[in-house]
Specification:
Layout lengths: L13 H11 L6 H15 L3 H8 L3 H14 L19 H11 L15 H11 L13 H11 L17 H25 L7 E17 L20 E14 L5 E6 L4 H14 L5 E6 L8 H8 L6 E5 L10 H10 L10 H29 L16 H13 L9
Parallel strand pairs: 1-4, 4-5
Antiparallel strand pairs: 1-2, 2-3
Helix pairs in contact: 1-2, 2-3, 2-4, 3-4, 5-7, 6-7, 8-13
């Protein structure tokens, strides 16, 4: 008489159970992995080969083999097929290394007009030059085999990912200066809340930048509106007419949320000075206007410096973001919102219409700008050391605290919702 099959004890860690459940419910995993994950989970609930096989529509021996392998090799290893002997590889390890080394150089270095390799070009080059380099196995190399070899080595010679070389040796110090200005705004806001008054008009802190190259584009034929059950979207002719570009000069008062803006055809020194004149007229004579801005040439030109020299001492003060660090400027969030909403698919009949709509957008977003300014600086206290006072705002220690805070938290507060 045949002996009873004894249940095998299968112990699964909580992490393994979570991973198996994820695989068992997946729609993208291979069917074999999904099936085996379901076997292990079902066997964990009911340790019976026959019961699990009937529940999943499988033979009990299939369930038994899967469970036995999970006990020996681990539950995750049991999901995959064991490696089969297969055909002996014809491409040697040395040939693969030579091909990978070749892919890590540019195609133009091998005499081709191409800047980068394509897998087809790389396969042809390997077929033509591989045997001469002592790799006869590459004489019949196929493009698909090249793709497999490069995938194994995680090399993608046909793609380019950009990076930014650090070109400002004082990046951290300049960033800390900007963050200390933001900390000063927070302290002024807290003082105003404590006194139940509006922020003092002795200082105005403006986050300023330009958004150049806004295209004034017109349609050549009217847009067609959506029609139910016919076409769901607006229809637009491919042809268009260009009227040029417009630059938007804008600054947000970080204390009040007020947006100052100017739409011009260009953004030279004279346009920047015109914006400064708008700020000069918007605030009382005793207000110190502090601008956070980038390193555009118009901000430090001879014309700009000459105009600033004519102003009362202390009227304007500039804090520059680090080179390639304009993302530290909060007004970039305003421009991002503008680009994603107002400027998206925009068509105008003239440059003047574009300017008018930009200024109308500034008025439309003023409540959002004020709310964003308030929310961002409210979040500044969540995790940022509160020991920094107005008297310490420029000290080295406070700058280090502000730098630490930025790295940990402040990116979550940049931008409009």
């Amino acid at each position: 008489m045949a002996a009873w099959r004894r249940a095998i004890e299968l112990s699964l860690e909580d992490a393994d159970v979570e991973r198996l459940r994820s695989i068992a419910q997946s729609r993208t995993e291979p069917a074999s992995r999904v099936e085996r994950a379901q076997i292990l989970l079902s066997y964990r609930e009911d340790p019976s080969f026959f019961a699990v096989g009937q529940a999943l529509g499988l033979h009990h021996q299939t369930v038994q083999r899967c469970v036995e392998r999970a006990v020996v090799e681990g539950p995750m290893a049991a999901l995959d097929d064991r490696p089969r002997p297969g055909k002996e590889p014809t491409i040697t390890i040395e040939a693969k290394a030579w091909l990978t080394s070749l892919a890590c150089r540019k195609a133009k270095e091998s005499g081709y007009p191409h800047e980068l390799w394509t897998t087809r070009l790389l396969a042809r080059h390997a077929r033509e030059h591989g045997p001469a380099q002592g790799h006869a196995c590459l004489a019949n190399l196929a493009q698909g085999t090249v793709c497999k070899i490069l995938d194994q080595e995680e090399v993608k010679p046909h793609k380019v990912r950009y990076y930014l070389e650090q070109r400002d040796p004082e990046f951290a110090e300049k960033m800390a200066e900007v963050l200390c200005v933001y900390r000063k705004v927070k302290l002024l806001k807290n003082a105003a809340v404590a006194s139940k008054k509006k922020p003092s008009d002795t200082v105005a802190i403006i986050s300023y930048d330009e958004k150049p190259g806004i295209q004034a584009i017109a349609t050549t034929t009217p847009d067609l509106p959506p029609e139910p059950h016919v076409h769901a979207t607006f229809a637009r002719d491919h042809e268009y007419k260009r009227y040029g570009t417009v630059s938007l000069l804008a600054g947000i008062d970080l204390l009040t949320g007020k947006v100052h803006a100017l739409a011009k055809d260009r953004h030279r020194s004279r346009e920047f000075i015109e914006f400064l004149k708008i700020l000069d007229a918007a605030y009382p004579a005793h207000t110190a206007i502090h601008l956070i801005l980038d390193n555009h040439s118009a901000h430090v030109s001879r014309e700009t410096r000459a105009w600033l020299a004519e102003q009362p001492s202390g009227r304007f003060e500039f804090t520059f973001t680090p080179k390639h660090g304009s993302w530290l400027n909060l007004v970039e969030g305003f421009f991002s919102k503008l680009a994603r909403s107002i400027l998206r698919h925009i068509r105008v009949a003239s440059k003047q219409e574009l300017k008018d709509r930009l200024m109308a957008a500034v008025d439309y977003f003023k409540p959002s700008a004020q709310a964003c300014s308030t929310a961002w600086f409210a979040g500044l206290s969540n995790g940022c050391p509160s020991q920094i006072t107005l008297g310490q705002a420029g000290t080295c220690e406070s700058r280090q605290k502000a730098l630490w805070y930025f790295r940990v938290r402040c990116r979550a507060h940049l931008g409009f919702v």
